[in-house]
Amino acid sequence: MAVTDFFAGELATELIKELIAVCKKSSHCKASAEQLIDTINELLPTIEEIKYSGVELPQRRQSQLDRLSETLRGGLELARKVLASGRWNVYKNLMYARKMEKLEKNVSRFLQGPMQAHVLADVHHSRVEAAERFDRLEGSARRIEQRLGSMKIGVSDGWLEEAVKRVEEEERDEGNLVNLGVGMVLGKKKVKEMLIGRYDLGVVGICGIGGSGKTTLAREICRDAQVRSYFNNRIVFLTVSQSPNVEQLKIKLWEHITGNNISGSNDLNLQWKLQFDLRIGVRTLVVLDDVWSLSVLEQLIFRIPGCKTLVVSRFMFPTVLNNTYEHELLREDEAMTLFCCSAFREKSIPIAANDKLVKQVVNECKGLPLAIKVIGASLRDQPQMFWTSAKNRLSRGEPICDSHENNLLSRMAISINYLPLKVRECFLDLGAFPEDKKIPLDVLINMWVEMHDLDKEEAFAIVIELSNKNLLTLVKDARAGDVYSSYYEISVSQHDVLRDLALYLSKRGNLNGQRRLLMPRREAGLPKEWERNMDQPFNAQIVSIHTGEMKKEDWFHMDFPKAEVLILNFASNDYFLPPFIASMPKLRALIIINYSTSNTVLHNLSVFHHLGNLRSLWFEKITVPQLPKTTVPLRNLRKISLVLCKVNNILHGSAVDLPMIFPRLSELMMDHCVDLIELPSSICQVHSLEILSITNCHGLLELPAYLGSLNSLQILRLYACPAIKKLPPGICELEWLKYLDISQCVNLSSLPEEIGRLISLEKIDMRECSQIRNLPGSIASLRSLHRVICDEEAALLWKEVEMVIPDLRVQVAEECFNLDWLSD
Q1: Which residues form the RPW8 domain (predicted)?
Q2: Which value, in Å, is the radius of gyration of the alpha carbons in the chain?
Q3: pLDDT reported for residue 486
Q4: Residue 308 phi, psi (nearest 5)
Q5: Quick check: is 564 in a domain?
Q6: 522 vs 526: CA distance, rounded Å
Q7: Which helix (H) or strand (E) holds 237?
Q8: What is the pLDDT of residue 129?
Q9: Could you point out which of 238, 504, 597, 623 has its C-alpha 20 to 30 Å from the C-alpha of 144?
């Protein structure tokens, strides 16, 4: 349980008591206080629910609830000031009344913003996973050709925001099951009958083939008002997947059901054995989505009075499930409606379309919602000859086995074959990432830039095209929005059937000759098939490995003369880097992601001596090792990304010589590196650095004094670094700086006096910088400045500056409380 949650709940309770007293004393504040009491009473249950849920908030977004606690604490202090004020002090009471109204407004914004209070409760019981996009029912956004023709990619503001805004618009229609027909509505009715009032059915299921809408139905069940009322909003939604971490899932379930924190696996095993003796009696619904294994399912089933489990799977588990609803495919009329929504953005066949041809294509989709939407999106706005060719190829599709699910891969491959070559290759690359995991867009973009000779804007355009064709889902971060936004703030997800399709198409041909050498799911070690073929070189350009802990003896020799991208996915506290990295002379991108709950320690660092061509490095949840004095310079390394890493060993003090080790580094990104206190002074000598992004590093106290020596720096991002109190004067020497982000640097007291020397500065983001109460006089010299994003109070400071700088646009940022991260 997060400490912040406890204090937020306690502050809300104390604030209500003080406000009641205020209502009795001050007539000026009475109306605002009464309204605020109602607001806090509405907010308090959700805070209490988090407080007693037993779930520890992820480190990644703890700061959002910190700000809520600060708001409540400020309200408490204000209420006490009102109590201390004399009744006849009219001026002071009026001032307090206005402050009370502002406080009420701030708290109300939290509740009334997008998916606020009910999401705060919901998101602790449900997890929005990779199937999300393909379970939505309305069509996609405009075709990519129209988008690219109407805007200059990478130049105009808003192009990224529009790309992801389409996802939000579709989500508003997600819950409308009527669009999928009476079959889905009937399925919802039958599943509800199994869940509500049937005490004899402790474990029930929804089964059906991949892409048939099982997860859509399950999530709609979780959103249903009657179901939520019956289970008192105690609903937890977990995605299990093909290669689950069972211990982590058991911990999540146990903490949610009991409200008790688990200190370790032994503690968990002891408590799990005691479950039959518990008499909790509180109704709780547990939804286990994407279950593949009976042995895994048996470990996640518990028999506690009042608790019911809904299992969503492609398979039936008759030995475990008391009852199962078999999800049916769409009827002919339902399939036609869904196809028309995807292909024409209408609910019926348009007059101008070839009625017979449309019906033939829909018939080939065999009533499967996912196939209907993907094929429909691929045919959107295409000429009739294209449709005819697609129909003919669908009708000739050869089944690879007798099951309809495998037939689906053959049919859906038609849509992939019609993609442009580079787009098709990028789609197949998605199979390199683990199932049911969000893929950081930054990782994807970097990989495509290195492999397919694309620039960043073209790579992102491919993301948009795949999204428009329902082949992946863009997952929007609240702050992403324009050309200066970092791609790591956005992620993508993919339906498991589409991932299966990418794997299926990538595995064609001889193993050693395949362009992508991928592990479909996590295994204890490397596949036996790889070991049998180790005597011959592997020609793969992408190598993706997904294991647990790997030691030196777990690896065997493999030769990769053409490998350009290596992705290491694992979950362990120690990891021995593969020795065969030394046989990857063309390696350009190395991605190391640890999915464990704690940071991992890497071993065998000597392999970095062989990475002379490495251009991009991504570390996630890694304890970054201290660089030895004999470190060979990585002369071609352009970009380093450190996410949730421990970095103090490498960056503390001035001992590390960054320009010597990374002589051509152009971008350094550090996010949620909690032990980062200071940057080494040698970073000021990395003259090739163009982008420096330090975000959510709450321990960072100050920037190096000579930061102005970075004469190539164009983007400086210091988002959510609350310990920074001032910027060094040297920052004003960055004559090429175009973007400065100091948003949520809540203790930053001022801008540098000579900031007007930043002659290239185009944009400043200073939202939630409440301590900045004055602007330096030199600010009027920022002739290139055309956009400032700030809060309402700060916008008043910029009024006079707007008169001096004609092209300046001051944008008041909306307060956003996006809590999707709680489901990670």
Answers
A1: 1-149
A2: 28
A3: 56
A4: -130, 145
A5: yes
A6: 9
A7: strand 235-241
A8: 38
A9: 504
- Determine, yes or no, domain membership for 490: yes
Neighbours of 287 (CB within 10 A): 23
Identity of residue 113: G
The pLDDT value given to residue 86: 61
φ, ψ (nearest 5 deg) of residue 631: -55, 130
Q: CA–CA separation, 311 vs 7, rounded Å?
A: 36
Which 3 state secondary structure label does DSSP give 194?
helix
Distance CA(50)–CA(62), nearest Å, equals: 13
**The CATH number of the domain where 225 resides is what?**
3.40.50.300
Four-residue CA torsion sign, 518, 520, 521, 523:
negative
* Sheet containing 574-576: order of strands: 574-576, 600-603, 622-623
Q: Do 481 and 564 reside in the same domain of the chain?
A: no
Domain of 764, CATH number, reads 3.80.10.10
Q: How many Å apart are CA 430 and CA 498, to the nearest integer?
A: 9
Residue whose structure tokens are 């039936």: 316
> Can you name the residues that pair with 668 across neighbouring β-strands?
640, 692
The residue among 412, 386, 407 whose CA lies nearest residue 494 is 412
Q: Cα separations (Å) of 449 from 427, 476, 666, 691?
A: 14, 22, 15, 17
Structure tokens at 30: 């009475």
**Domain count across the chain:** 5
Q: What is the DSSP letter of 523?
A: B
Residue 133: both structure tokens together: 């996009």
Residue 162 within any structural domain of the chain: no
The residue segments making up the domain with residue 29 are 2-113
CATH number at residue 446: 1.10.10.10
The answer on 63 and 13 residing in a single domain is yes
Amino acid at 570: F
The ranges of the chain with pLDDT < 50 are 1-7, 48, 51-56, 58-61, 114-160, 163, 168-178, 270, 273-274, 276-277, 279, 397-405, 478-481, 817-824
Residue 366: inside a domain: no
Q: What is the dihedral angle through the alpha carbons of 295, 299, 300, 301, rounded to the nearest 10 degrees?
A: 90
Domain boundary at 628, 645, 662, which? 645
Regarding whether 558 and 700 lie in a shared domain, the answer is no
- Shared domain for 689 and 634, answered yes or no, is no
787-791 long-range CB contacts below 8 Å, 24 or more apart?
787/157, 787/762, 787/763, 787/811, 788/763, 788/764, 789/743, 789/763, 789/764, 789/765, 789/813, 790/764, 790/765, 790/766, 791/767
How far apart CA 790 and CA 766 sit, in angstroms, is 5
Residue 799 exposed, middle or buried by CB count within 10 Å (0-12, 13-18, 19+): exposed
Dig out the tokens for 123 from the structure. Answer: 């998101």
DSSP-assigned letters across all residues of 238-277: EEEESS--HHHHHHHHHHHHH-----SHHHHHHHHHTGGG
Range list of H helices, 396-495: 404-417, 421-429, 441-452, 456-468
pLDDT at 338: 87
Choose among 744, 800, 748, 750: nearest CA to 775. Answer: 750
Which class for 243: exposed (0-12), middle (13-18), buried (19 or more C-beta within 10 A)? buried
Instruction: Name the residue with tokens 């997008």.
Output: 114
Residue 54 DSSP class:
-
Last residue of one domain, picked from the residues 495, 518, 548: 495
Tens digit of each residue's pLDDT (9 = 90 or more) over 539-570: 999 999 999 999 999 999 999 999 999 999 99
Whole-number Å distance between alpha carbons of 775 and 716? 19
**What amino acid is encoded at 634 in this protein?**
L
Q: Are residues 474 and 517 in the same domain?
A: no
- 552 and 465 inside one domain: no
- Do residues 302 and 253 touch, judged by C-beta distance below 8 A? yes
Tokens of 269: 């095993």
Residue in 267, 264, 180, 262 with CA at minimum distance from that of residue 217? 180
> Residue holding tokens 């020397």?
757
Which residues face 241 on adjacent strands?
291
Cα separation of 77 and 84, whole Å? 11
311 and 450 share one domain? no
